[in-house]
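Dataset card, provenance and construction

Sequences and ligand SMILES were collected as paired inputs. For each pair, a complete structure of the chain with the small molecule in place was predicted and serialized as structure tokens. The example below shows a pair involving zinc ion. Curators did not alter the output after generation; any descriptive sentences attached to a record were derived from the structure itself.
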Amino acid sequence: MISKTTMSGPYRLGLPDPEPQPTEGCPRCEALSQQRATARRTGDLSAVSDLNVAMRAHQGGGCA
Ligand SMILES: [Zn+2]
């Protein structure tokens, strides 16, 4: 369960942010990508945002 109480970064409304793509074969990316798909399906856009941030941070920190 992801909860979000405050916005943690600059949000550019109207400009679609390019979303990070999961790295093939990386289980962490897979998991984040699946959670993101679920969040989007349920309309939880703040969770989608969170997961994008998490995926970027994970990939920036050295992906599998
Ligand atoms: Zn990864």
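Derived descriptions for this record:
Helices lie at 27-41, 45-60.
The chain has a mean pLDDT of 85.
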